[in-house]
Write a structure and sequence with these properties.
This protein is mainly α. The protein is built from 4 helices and no strands. Helix 1 packs across helix 3. The N and C termini lie far apart (30 Å).
Length: 80
């Protein structure tokens, strides 16, 4: 289980993601799906933060995630 700082960081990052997809949500994702989507985002962000601690399983998961990045993704950019 994460500490208070890890939980807060996950919530802040998740809020940033949610803020960034608001326009997409308004056009394409019905409100009734957002609760589930928000939970999926928060849990994925939190789990990734916990993986950064670097245990054996965590390192394997980060390596797996790295290999899962599609080649067509562009580099991230600052949005705010």
């Amino acid at each position: 289980m994460g500490n208070k700082d890890e939980i807060e960081l996950a919530m802040i990052i998740s809020a940033a993601i949610r803020r960034n997809i608001e326009g997409f949500h308004a056009k394409h994702i019905p409100d009734e799906h957002m609760k589930e989507l928000n939970t999926l985002v928060r849990d994925a962000v939190y789990s990734t933060i916990l993986c950064l601690r670097g245990g054996e399983h965590d390192i394997k998961m980060l390596q797996y995630l790295k290999t899962s990045i599609p080649k067509y993704w562009e580099n991230p950019k600052k949005i705010f």
